[in-house]
Specification:
- This protein is mostly helical.
- It is 80% helix and 0% strand.
- 35% of the residues are buried.
Length: 209
């Protein structure tokens, strides 16, 4: 019996990587922690990742209960999630990813780093949809968990070594990565919307399943 579905694992990791965009958080993280020592910056990265994973995990576990309680169908969630991700993609393409950077009077590792930058609505919706797609299969569940672990490590490393990454990529490199992520995210969100519309039409008997 396969313990990991590598195709599903790859899909989950790539989608969440594009949505969260760890390289794109580098300039924001550097600006928010400009007065931190190396030790404080490392701790801030760890706390931010922990908060993001906690938020996403809670919705992964209890998201379906919330949907059932509020009488929201999966296609409706997928459609609204696609629109939400499309807005995020347009912000990335327009260079507005740092609008949430100004945060006063709170721990920046919690807000805006932990949420909504890392553990934001886009990632939450995507994970809830992936949980639905597991179909209770052990291999897919294991793949989802593994993808989350790999993503958490990637997020931490991106912020922990933000200074090094920024120097290697340069301002132009970080901007390029962010714009490419915006294009990919736009494509993913558009596909989500198309799939949701098809699910609606199938449910109404307009098209064959």
């Amino acid at each position: 019996m396969n313990l990991v579905d590598f195709s599903f694992l790859t899909g989950v990791f790539v989608t969440l990587f594009v949505i969260i965009d760890p390289p794109g958080t580098v300039p924001i993280f550097l600006s928010l922690t400009s007065t931190f020592t190396a030790k404080q910056r490392s701790r801030a990265a760890l706390v931010a990742v922990g908060v993001a994973v906690l938020i996403i995990s809670v919705f992964a576990l209890f998201g379906q209960f919330i949907l059932d309680y509020m009488h929201i169908s999966l296609p409706a969630l997928q459609f609204s999630g696609g629109l939400l991700l499309l807005i995020v993609a347009l912000q990335l393409l327009a260079g507005k990813e740092d609008e949430m950077g100004a945060s006063e009077g709170v721990n920046v590792a919690l807000v805006p780093l932990g949420t909504p930058l890392l553990g934001g609505p886009g990632a939450i919706v995507a994970v809830m949809l992936f949980v639905q797609q597991t179909g209770g299969e052990a291999a897919r569940i294991g793949s989802l968990v593994l993808a989350m672990v790999l993503l958490a490590v990637t997020m931490y490393l991106a912020m922990r070594f933000a200074g090094v990454i920024a120097r290697v990529l340069g301002d132009g490199g970080v901007t390029l990565v962010t714009r490419i992520s915006g294009v990919l995210l736009a494509a993913i969100s558009t596909q989500m919307i198309f799939d949701a519309v098809r699910a609606f039409l199938t449910e109404w008997g307009i098209v064959a399943g």
